[in-house]
From TrEMBL:
<dbReference type="GO" id="GO:0016020">
    <property type="term" value="C:membrane"/>
</dbReference>
<keyword id="KW-1133">Transmembrane helix</keyword>
<dbReference type="GO" id="GO:0012505">
    <property type="term" value="C:endomembrane system"/>
</dbReference>
<feature type="transmembrane region" description="Helical">
    <location>
        <begin position="190"/>
        <end position="209"/>
    </location>
</feature>
<dbReference type="Pfam" id="PF14778">
    <property type="entry name" value="ODR4-like"/>
</dbReference>
<dbReference type="GO" id="GO:0008104">
    <property type="term" value="P:intracellular protein localization"/>
</dbReference>
<comment type="similarity">
    <text>Belongs to the ODR-4 family.</text>
</comment>
<dbReference type="InterPro" id="IPR029454">
    <property type="entry name" value="ODR-4-like"/>
</dbReference>
<protein>
    <submittedName>
        <fullName>Odr-4p</fullName>
    </submittedName>
</protein>
<keyword id="KW-0812">Transmembrane</keyword>
<keyword id="KW-0472">Membrane</keyword>
């Protein structure tokens, strides 16, 4: 552990600065068991991830600045993946609804700028996408002529079917609160409103006659 006010690199006069590994734990809780409690919510999301990212910072930066850069890159990466995942989803109105569903977000693919290898560009690939798809995206969106050999898609991998089931299992056991009113509840509510209206009308007539 290093103090945030400490200089990240001890000797900034070196011609070549070695990369520094930063580990960020979003939830360091040791208890990983499913301890979910019933909650009233219209939409509840749980995001689980274990990813590796890069962040470029000035040489004379302090440790706290490096940690902030990693967190900022992490938020941007997850936001971009979530937007792509949402845009790729097809809404089928007649399809059977599921109380719980598991989605696998796009994985990262990067390439470097030939004139400045420290500058890295990122793209996100779906399960069926390959390095050639990332190559085409870099060319079409950025005009970047990236060689296929220089595209790194080994940062992450897609989960296998059995691994997806392991993720789904504890979610299926999560209690779901159904907030949709039943037909009987609606009938009781209307009956109560009608009864109150009749009582108010009778009281009004009595007061008027007196």
């Amino acid at each position: 552990m290093r103090d945030e006010s400490e200089q990240l690199f001890k000797d900034v006069k070196k011609k070549k600065i070695e990369p520094v590994e930063v580990e960020v734990f979003v939830d360091a809780c040791e208890n990983k068991e499913n301890t979910c409690e019933p909650q009233s919510a219209t939409n509840l999301h749980e995001v689980s991830f274990d990813i590796e990212i890069r962040a470029a910072i000035p040489v004379k930066s302090k440790v706290g600045f490096a940690v902030a850069a990693v967190k900022q890159h992490l938020v941007r990466s997850l936001t971009a993946r979530a937007e792509l995942q949402y845009e790729s989803m097809d809404v089928v109105e007649d399809a059977a609804t599921s109380l719980c569903s598991v989605h696998q977000m796009p994985r990262s693919a990067t390439t470097m700028l030939n004139t400045h290898p420290a500058i890295v560009f990122s793209d996100y690939l779906f399960e069926a996408d390959t390095a050639e798809d990332a190559q085409n995206n870099f060319n079409e969106l950025l005009g970047l002529k990236a060689d296929k050999e220089h595209i790194d898609e080994c940062w992450e991998r897609c989960l296998e079917i059995d691994e997806m089931e392991v993720v789904r299992a504890p979610l299926d056991d999560t209690p779901i609160v159904n907030l949709k009113p039943k037909d009987g509840d609606i009938t009781s509510t209307w009956s109560l409103l009608i009864a109150l209206s009749v009582i108010i009308a009778v009281v009004s007539i009595v007061v008027y006659l007196l």
